[in-house]
Amino acid sequence: MKLRVLSASDCRAVLDMASAIDIQAEAFTLLAAGHSIEGLRSFVTSDEPPGVAIFNPCFLRNGRGYGIKVISDFYDNEKRHATRMTGIVALFDSTTGYPRTVMEAGYLTDLRTGAGTGLAARYLARRDSRTVAIIGAGRVARNQLAALAELFDLDRVLLSTRSAERAENFIRRMAAANVRVPKDIRVTEREEAVRSADIVVTATTSETPVFSGAWLKPGTFVASVGAHEPSAREVDSETIGRAAKLVIDSRTDCLDHAGDFMIPIAEGIVAREKIAEIADLVGGVQPGRSSDEEITYYKSIGVPIQDLVTAQHIERRAEQKGIGSEIDIGGEED
Which of 137, 155, 242, 331 could hold 130 in an S-S bridge, CB 3.0 to 4.6 Å? Predict the structure, then answer.
């Protein structure tokens, strides 16, 4: 058996953020059409050393293929001067079940996470959005900005984070990245950032709301990509209550695992049936933004089909360009 191995640089060479945004539309369309088997994700936590292993399998029906992403997030790696989050994606042949491709998962995860928000912003953000407030300064925050910069003529970025060191690292990395990010990235007080922004992105590990919904000006698009536990949330109930459009990446995952919605639903702030999936917008079943005054909100926790479809595109392009290494892994015949 031949197995193609793709490094992070191989993946980067064949797929960029702009293309990844369109690929997310394909993934969510497949999800809405019932072509994938979902609900297979599992988490295994480790106390010593502290961390979590995340297993994201996805199976597409009708011979469209299947795969799994395994991500390790070990919290003390920063103390070891090692990358905190690492992983791989394995793809399998849809006819024989043979393993076909293994690729580094970090770049893919960056792409699909940022691109998912970019896709939502196409439908929910004002086209004349110029100012983005970013709360959080880690890897996820960087890919969110990279995606938004592909879609909007941004003038400035208002950054709110825990420390000056993290802010400096964010600014340095964004300046070095080959993306359309504005040069005007400044650290500001959180309230000032939110009140001034056309787009607000929260990408934190906070368990409690990171800003007040009262700070949002009319017409703001809010995207929340952190807080993936039922008891944790990045936005408060006022934000949910003020939003005219509430959109999620997956009803199965978000409404049963994300406190950003579970808590206000329990409080009676919003009903489950008032919340749309991004696939509803892509397919024209639900409208996106309908006025410049609406506050809109998107919550994502990442859906396995995003990983699979993005990985399949990377694999296909790598094969066409002869990129990657092929190894013979053997395997006895029956």
Answer: 155
pLDDT by residue, tens only, the chain of 334 residues: 889 999 999 999 999 999 999 999 999 999 888 888 866 778 888 888 998 899 999 999 988 899 999 999 898 988 898 888 899 999 999 889 999 999 999 999 999 999 999 999 999 999 999 999 999 999 999 999 999 999 999 999 999 998 999 999 999 999 888 678 888 999 999 999 999 999 999 999 899 999 999 999 999 999 999 877 888 899 999 999 999 999 999 887 788 888 999 999 999 999 999 999 999 999 889 999 999 999 999 999 888 999 999 999 999 999 999 999 999 998 766 5
pTM: 0.92
Q: How many CA atoms lie within 13 A of 4 on its CB side?
A: 22
Q: Indicate if the alpha-carbon torsion angle 208, 210, 211, 216 is positive or negative.
A: negative
Distance CA 188, CA 210 (A): 14
Vertex 130: Cα angle to 129 and 131 (nearest 5): 110
Grouping H, G, I as helix, E, B as strand and the rest as coil, residue 8 is: helix
